[in-house]
Amino acid sequence: MNSPPSRRKKAAPPASTDSTNEDVSQQLDPGSATITVTAVEVTELTQEEQSDRLHLERKVERAFFEAGKALIELRDGLRPAVGDRRLYRSTHKTFDEYCLDRFGYNRSRSYQLVDAAVVVDNLQKCPQIVDILPTAEGQVRPMTKLEPQDQQEVWLTAVELAGGKVPTGRIVKDVVQRIMERTKVLNTYQIGEVCQILVKDNPDLRGRGGCWAIVSAVNDFSCSVRMWDGEHTVGLQHLKSYDYLPAECEQMQLISDHITRVYSDSLEETVKSLLQLLGKVNRPYLTAVEEKLLKLLELEYGRIP
């Protein structure tokens, strides 16, 4: 009798060594992860490098000042003996047009930089200020209408309030306000009044001393006036009324209108000098010859209304 066939046992699969079947979450512990950081050695600056860095930092800080100084020389030069130094005259009739085309500066921005450069120049003359000077035009702007000695006082006070550092524009503005309140005088000038310009060491009024001006706007501490070469803002301490009668003021207004129609930066120097002389007459009328000369200039330059 034959024996029944034996059942063959299936071979058990070998134990898997594939780590993918294991519980990865048990192997990786985020809390015990190690981050390797490579240390980078920072070398100290050499004496020469420190000097280079300070020099470049000063150039950045003084950029607005250098721009203002350059604009001043482009406009009217720093060396009058050289002659006509309007370096924009070959391409543009006026300084305002030149600044707008070349730098994208409107009139306001150009004169902000010019005024700021004048203030910084003045601050540099004070021995106590040499080490801490403005680093931005906005820090200087509140001081532009003050007298030079007041500008220095304001800056020294602002630096002290800032803890011996360069003060913000807000600090400077607050100090300026105190100075102006302390020295505030009543502005009694009236629109249309004729005044004489007094320079009193104010560089912004260079070449305009003794000129007559007609008040066009009355501000708290200054007046906007029309002179032979255009509109200007002048502090009260730089004005002296001629005390003309109303009819005489009206006559001066007519003369001012005639001069304004003729004057421009593109005129020949002789013509501008003549207009400047007419702008300094200390009487409320022109002589017959002066009137003829002015009418001739109006005809020549085609500005008759």
UniProtKB/TrEMBL annotation:
Residues 1-31 are annotated as: Disordered. Residues 17-29 have a biased composition (Polar residues). It comes from the Bacteria. Residues 1-11 have a biased composition (Basic residues). This is Uncharacterized protein.
